[in-house]
Amino acid sequence: MPFITLHLSGSPDPELSRDLSKRIGALACKLLRKDLRRTSVLVRYVPHADWFIADQSLQELGRNAFRLEVTVTDETNTRDEKAIFQREAFQALSTWIGNVHPHSNIHVIDCRATAYGYGGVTQDRHYQALDLGSAPNGP
User: According to the model, what pLDDT value does residue 139 have?
Assistant: First the structure.
């Protein structure tokens, strides 16, 4: 059940938001082994003049940037899976957005199963209720 937050430099663009939410959601679910049916994506825009890297705005730099946060339940992904996701997501977003500053970043946030959940139920409780023989993607 990842919750994905994608901050993009620029002005709101509903078509781009829809396109990137589908693409990054699918990529995260594939590489981090999550269920797309339980994935949420939030896209936010920040004006180039309000995003700073090394004391210069993206407007001054003439660049685009992103910050991608993917919240997952701790211990559900390996170190290698997260490293591969970092690489693949950075390459993909750089291509999809274009002219991306190299200090755009990705943060995979591991939350404890007892501190993270949906529907008013922690991931730990969801896990306890699983029939492990029929749950290919885990909590």
Answer: 52
